[in-house]
Specification:
- By secondary structure, the protein is mostly helical.
- It has helices spanning 23-36, 40-48, 59-77, 86-98, and strands at residues 53-56, 99-102.
- The protein has a two-stranded parallel sheet with strand order 1-2.
- Helix 1 (23-36) packs parallel to helix 4 (86-98).
- The longest helix has 19 residues, at 59-77.
Length: 103
């Protein structure tokens, strides 16, 4: 029998959890995961445990944040604030509330 594979904190994770989401929810989850710089499993587990995430800024994360903020800027400049959908606002709120940016 093979040895158990434990993570960095010596936890053996053998349970698989799956759930269904809408395409919009999936897009939002993927955007939040990309902005966090974490893998999807770590991101979701941290959020379920209400842990804040230390976001180490790199060029990939910086560009994602700039793209999100650029969408907001374009909507404001075109005087069409209704274009800023709730999904985009949720992403911005998540960045502000749950990520501590380390330099």
């Amino acid at each position: 029998m093979s040895a158990k594979n434990c993570d960095k904190k010596n936890r053996f994770r053998s349970i698989i959890v799956g759930f269904r989401v809408s395409p919009e929810e999936n897009e939002m989850i993927n955007e939040l995961v990309a902005l966090s710089g974490l893998d999807k499993q770590t991101y979701i587990v941290n959020r379920l445990q209400n842990d804040s995430m230390n976001l180490t800024m790199n060029s990939r994360i910086y560009l994602r944040i700039v793209l999100v903020l650029n969408k907001v800027y374009e909507a404001i400049m075109s005087n069409n604030v209704s274009e800023i959908d709730t999904q985009l606002l949720t992403v911005i709120a998540d960045i502000i509330k749950n990520c501590k940016i380390d330099d």
